[in-house]
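User: Sequence in, structure out. Go.
Assistant: Echoing your sequence, followed by the structure tokens.
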Amino acid sequence: MKKFLDMPVEFLDHVFSHYGIKHLSPSSINTYIMDPCLWCQRYLLDVPTDPSPAMFRGSTVDNAVGLYFGSHPSGRPRSITQIQQDALKSFDHFKEDKIFKKTWVEEDHNDKWKKEKDLIARYIKTAIDFYADFDSKPSDYQGEVFYEMKSLPIPIYGKYDLAYEKDGILRDMKTVSRKTSENAFSINRQLALYGTVTGLNPIADYILVNKSSASVTSVECNNVEESLAELERGAMAIARFLSLSDDKNDLLSLHFPNYDDFKWSEFRNDKGIRSLWRK
């Protein structure tokens, strides 16, 4: 039998085309590494995971920093107060959006939502104050990167937050509720992609806000080569998995979800979703 790694790229091109996958990303690869079933549900079955308040908090802070420095495509520089007000309105709009309505029905979700909203203005000010204190302004915001592998027919695509080309630095924002002193493996894989493509030193900025404190901790990715190799192996693991069959039900039969895991909490009582894993 021919070794998988010797399979022609043309064959893998057919594999990805068959399943409608045009690119991979650090997020999709990390999801496969973390939970193959969750990857199948998102990328084979096209069943999205409802965004959490914490997830939306992160994108809100990203947008706020971009707007303040005038690098966000949706507007010119404005004051911190104006940006905070717009962010709170955006939070409310997101909650009322009918697409995500079911996410906030339960009282527990509403409580989490309120906690995040109460802190969002401080997150924004903490982040903007941190970046405004630099001597340089960002040269790019939300830049796109494409990484090509010889053995993979589709690119690995990503978007970083802030680039400082004069300083040789790339920064990615992470909003957190607990102090962080080191990058998770998944974060290093993401940073390694950005750093390799841009040639800049990738850094994760952890923006911490809670009731008692607000701070930013910066952590470099010191093992870019090793982390990029992990990302590549994860990408090839996805390719190998998809190549096993052109029938998604066959692929689903190779795994079964761990419904005890919190990541599956929203699907535990969904009979439609659970039936997909019983075929």
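User: And one key feature?
Assistant: Residues 20-48+139-236 form a domain with the Lambda Exonuclease; Chain A fold (CATH 3.90.320.10).
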